Amino acid sequence: MRFDIVTLFPEFFASPLQCSLLGRAIAHQIAQVHLTNPRDFTTDKHHKVDDIPYGGGVGMVLKPEPIFAAVESLPVLPRRAVLLMTPQGEPMHQRLFEDFSQNYDQLVVICGHYEGVDERVMALVDREVSLGDFVLTCGEIPALALLNGVVRLKPGTVGKAESLKYESFEEPLLDYPQYTRPAAFRGMEVPEVLRSGNHGAIAQWRREQQIEKTQRMRPDLLRSDLSGKYGPRQKHQTP
Description:
The structure is a single chain. This protein is α/β, with parallel strands linked by helices. The chain folds into 2 domains: about 1-150, SPOUT methyltransferase, trefoil knot domain (Alpha/beta knot, 3-Layer(aba) Sandwich), CATH 3.40.1280.10; about 165-225, tRNA(m1g37)methyltransferase, domain 2 (Trp Operon Repressor, Chain A, Orthogonal Bundle), CATH 1.10.1270.20. The chain contains 6 helices and 9 strands; from the N terminus they run βαβββαβαββαββαα. The chain has helices at about 20-25, 65-70, 95-105, 140-150, 200-215, 220-225; strands spanning about 1-5, 30-35, 50, 60, 80-90, 105-110, 125-130, 185, 190. The strands form 3 sheets. It has a 5-stranded parallel β-sheet with strand order 2-1-6-5-7. It has a two-stranded antiparallel sheet with strand order 3-4. The chain is elongated and about 70 Å long. Mean pLDDT is about 90; it is low at about 225-239.
């Protein structure tokens, strides 16, 4: 899968693209990440990419010409989407990552800056995507989150693909508590049921913990699932 990140700060991605699972996925050619700087497509001697907004207001707005030129310089794969990272976009969630991972060969990700981008850039954009209902200094942070969330779903990225089926947000429940050795640590012990070897009892305990934790920490997930926010889900039978 090919990712084209249109960014004024390519160096932002230098370390993350070499680390952990993301770095391994790139090394194994599960994903290709290409960085394109709109500043390289400016025509003035100062390489200006922003200007004051028409109508007045504080801050600067990214100019359309460098962004158009940057995006139009990229190859076009058959299943492609151009995304704009912006606080006003669709909030990221697991179903969105699954959609991108399964149904696209190329994602072009435009990183916003300053007070935003010239509205005419929207002629290039298929979808606006947000990390959440807050404002950051740059679009590179949500772009990296999206890249990570999508690539980890590609076959071969995660060592045990089966683990992807049993994690938070694969259904409208948070994950159950996890424990490892030692069985006792500073007076805190691993629940007896997890050491029992009774797989049926363990599955039931984990399910109960998921429900309790979700009701306590994220009841909105249960409500949003009823409204279809996260899309179609597989049916799970409670043990």
